[in-house]
Design goal:
Layout lengths: L12 H6 L14 E7 L5 E7 L1 H5 L3 E5 L31 E2 L5 E7 L2 H8 L3 E6 L6 H4 L15 E9 L2 H7 L2 E9 L11 E6 L5 E5 L4 H12 L6 E4 L16 H13 L6 E4 L2 H7 L2 E2 L2 E9 L5 E13 L5 H11 L8 E10 L5 E2 L6 H18 L4 H6 L21 H11 L3 E3 L2 E3 L5 E2 L4 E11 L10 E9 L3 E8 L8 H13 L6 E5 L16 H21 L5 E7 L20 E12 L6 E11 L6 H21 L4 E2 L2 E2 L18 E7 L21 H13 L10 H9 L2
Helix pairs in contact: 6-7, 9-10, 10-16, 13-14, 15-16
The protein binds dioxothiomolybdenum(VI) ion.
Length: about 725
């Protein structure tokens, strides 16, 4: 192959390394104004009065924008449950309420950042505080205090799975393991805090330069809130400093557009810029959902799983964001990559007055898999079986039914992925049984190994419409001189744009430098769908292949230039049946297994991650070095999640709002070695066989670390992060 499968240099590498690449905060225009977004500073309250006279009179202030200035004061990726600005005088029911600390209540636009900031302090707001709900386990039962009275319940959404009969199965089980798990918040901590500039372009479009994950969705949400036609809004993504799901929901998109819209009505046409501080980013954008999980699993003496019963409660925070999508994945994945005849799952996402939670690498997978893999490792201990051996007896194989009653799509490789990972870690197969290496558990040296595995879907799934469009223009006369690829997909640092160009080069049989990519601008391409859910390489590749194929036919037919546009639609999926959960959840998966080694310092409780082996079936690595980068990045990010990242929020107020109090891994904290095993079992419908892979290396790490800590110390920690303090306290309690 010409380009696919080669570790070609990233097309954005030079500009990013040299500093030439412009991120949203780097854009400056003549005559630009600055906007300060005013947060509520209350967790649950009604706004009774807003007085802006002094703020408006502050020198340099051009506008103070409030709820009643928003044409259609609502937005949301899944449901429109969030006011653009909370306040009075807006027809949106209950929009006079603030529901979390950083709910936006006003925008101040001024000649300078300082003037905007100072004027913001002069806005007077009278609140009537309402009782706050901070624990989803109590909010779920609360009927008198509702975060969204018009929703009628604090349960935003729920799913259930009913397969077989768990009660009879538990009665027949030789061993039953029952436990309770809590998974933590996680902050995305991308390098680039939220920023952007808005202006009205030469064609009269309200234009926003911002970082996001789906430009066309941003465009739709802006158009909805401003109540203007879609083609009057343009969204451009420049270089983006990381996303990880944290840019899937709106941050500054709508308010930046609203500011220029509002000024334009007053006859002022000037660009408006905002850059959030790290503190504003941490308190202002959503987090990974904490989950509270009850688990009860039963197995026969030979290790065969016969029943799993799970209850999941997710803290959705003040607004839905992608809670239902995240809950869907958690519901499916909370029983692991296993064939289990009897499954009973009840899963809920619950509104509270905490910070909203939403997409974050793995999308519910890490939460569900933590409980599932922990249960598996405990069953292995209870049955005195090897942890790989027990998995081999239960893994989903081609044709096996998921908990939701349908088989995985063809190309199931979980068994080979775990096999390769275990062999690399020193397991042996003796008399057809898996035997762990001696260092599985070494309590004298406080060293242990941990195992976990998972799968990860590609795409939004559960019946959500899926598509991705690409357009190709072939230029030249006798031969193709250049190909222009128009694509909506975002480059959030993961290498998507390089993969697009590689796949176009491959499909057109042209050198890489003959492909020019025009990307991530709603005015130049149709929708790609989101850069999320491990879907972009898979979806874009199929769209690019289709467009290239058609463009080449036109080229053969002497069309000059030869232009073709193609929309790829994957096989349809279906939503959970409300009673049984039965569905065809996804059209493609990747498979992952990890073995980690930890050392636990008995004096300090510190857990050192010595090594990680991460085996991933990526189908076809489009760019092997980028794949390795994704694996290593995901492992490090998951090591932060498992061991360090301690997000503290008390009664809805975030205490860890800086990177000096919310600690993420630095070079001194990362695993001493990460062994990335790239496995390539082609996906039958992936481009060149590629599967999605950006999220899966993240998913099994926390339960593998939990298992390794157990093997090093004899203690199970069912709640993480496994900080030194938590571990030391746990080791000392009897
Ligand atoms: Mo992601 S959590 O699929 O952006």
């Amino acid at each position: 192959m010409r380009s696919v499968g080669h570790s070609v240099p990233r097309i954005d590498a030079l500009a990013k390394a040299s500093g030439e690449a412009l991120y949203p905060g780097d854009y400056n225009f003549d005559n630009q104004l600055y906007m300060k977004v005013v947060f509520a500073d209350r967790v649950h309250a009604r706004i009774l009065r807003v007085e802006t006279t002094n703020a408006e009179a502050y020198p340099g202030v051009l506008a103070v924008i409030l709820a009643n200035d928003v044409p259609n004061n609502e937005y949301g990726l899944i449901v429109n449950d969030q006011p653009v600005l909370c306040g009075i005088g807006s027809p949106k029911p209950y929009s006079d309420r603030v529901r979390f600390y950083a709910d936006n209540v006003a925008l101040v636009v001024a000649e300078s950042e300082e003037a905007a900031r100072n004027a913001a302090k002069l806005i007077e707001i009278d609140y009537e505080d309402l009782p706050g709900l901070f624990d989803p386990r109590t909010a779920i039962k609360e009927n008198n205090n509702l975060v969204h009275p018009d929703h009628g319940s604090n349960i935003f959404n729920s799913y259930r799975i009913r397969k077989g009969d768990v009660e009879s199965a538990f009665a027949e089980a030789d061993v039953v393991v029952e436990d309770y798990y809590e998974t933590p918040y996680q902050e995305h901590a991308y390098l680039q805090p939220e920023a952007g500039v808005s202006y009205i372009d030469a064609e009269g479009r309200i234009t926003v330069i911002v970082g996001g994950q789906w430009a066309h969705e941003d465009q739709e949400q802006i158009a909805h809130a401003l109540n203007v036609p879609l083609d009057k809004i343009r969204v451009i993504y420049p270089a983006i400093g990381g996303a990880f799901g944290g840019r899937e929901d709106m941050s500054l998109q709508i308010v930046l557009a609203l500011a220029v819209y509002h000024l334009d009505k007053k006859g002022i046409r000037r660009p408006v810029k905002t850059v959030w501080s790290r503190e504003e980013s941490i308190i202002g954008h959503h987090k990974r959902h904490p989950y509270y999980i009850k688990a009860k699993w039963g197995a026969k003496a030979d290790g065969k799983l016969i029943a799993a019963q799970m209850e999941l409660i997710a803290d959705a925070g003040a607004y839905a964001y992608t809670s239902s999508k995240v809950l869907g994945n958690a519901t499916l994945m909370c029983t692991g990559p296993y064939s289990i005849p009897n499954v009973h799952v009840d899963a809920y996402s619950v509104y509270t007055n905490n910070i909203p939670t939403g997409a974050f690498r793995g999308f519910g997978g890490p939460q569900g898999i933590f409980a599932a893999e922990s249960q598996m490792n405990k069953l292995a201990v209870a049955l005195n079986m090897d942890p790989v051996e027990i998995r081999m007896k239960n893994l989903l194989r081609e044709g096996d039914l998921l908990s939701v009653g349908t088989p995985l799509p063809k190309g199931v490789s979980m068994e080979d992925v775990l096999r390769q990972c275990a062999l690399r870690a020193g397991w042996k197969v003796i008399d057809e049984e898996w035997k762990a290496p001696d260092n599985l558990t070494d309590r004298k040296q406080n060293i242990g190994l941990g195992v976990a595995c998972s799968y990860k879907n590609v795409g939004f799934s559960y019946g959500a419409p899926e598509s991705c469009t690409a357009k190709v223009e072939l230029i030249g006369q006798d031969r193709i001189e250049e190909a222009i690829l128009y694509h909506g997909g975002a480059e959030v640092g993961q290498g998507s744009h390089t993969a697009f160009v590689q796949m176009a080069s491959e499909a057109l049989d042209l050198p890489l430098d003959k492909i020019r990519l025009v990307a991530a601008d709603t005015s130049t391409s149709k929708s790609s769908g989101s850069v999320s859910a491990s879907r972009m390489t898979f979806m874009a590749g199929n769209a690019i292949n289709g467009a290239c194929e058609q463009a080449l036919i036109k080229w053969e037919n002497e069309e000059r230039p030869a232009i073709a546009e193609f929309t790829f639609r994957p096989p349809k999926t279906s939503p959970f049946d409300p009673e049984t959960g039965k569905c065809e959840p996804n059209f493609s998966y990747g498979y992952v297994a990890e073995v980690v080694e930890t050392f636990v310092d008995p004096d300090t409780g510190e857990v050192i991650l010595n090594s990680v082996i991460c085996a991933d079936d990526v189908g076809q690595a489009i760019n092997p070095l980028s794949v390795k980068g994704q694996i290593e990045g995901a492992v490090v990010q998951a090591a932060g999640y498992a061991l360090m990242e301690n997000f503290i929020q008390i009664d809805g107020i975030i205490k860890t709002k800086t990177l000096s109090t919310y600690l993420i891994p630095t070079i001194l904290d990362i695993p001493v070695s990460i062994d990335s095993l790239i496995i390539e079992h082609k996906d039958p419908i992936g481009p060149y066989g590629a599967r999605g892979m950006g999220e899966m290396p993240f998913i099994p790490l926390a339960p593998a670390v939990q298992h390794a800590i157990f093997n090093a110390t004899g203690k199970w920690f069912n709640k993480f992060p496994f900080t030194a303090e938590t571990v030391l306290l746990g080791l000392n309690e009897e």
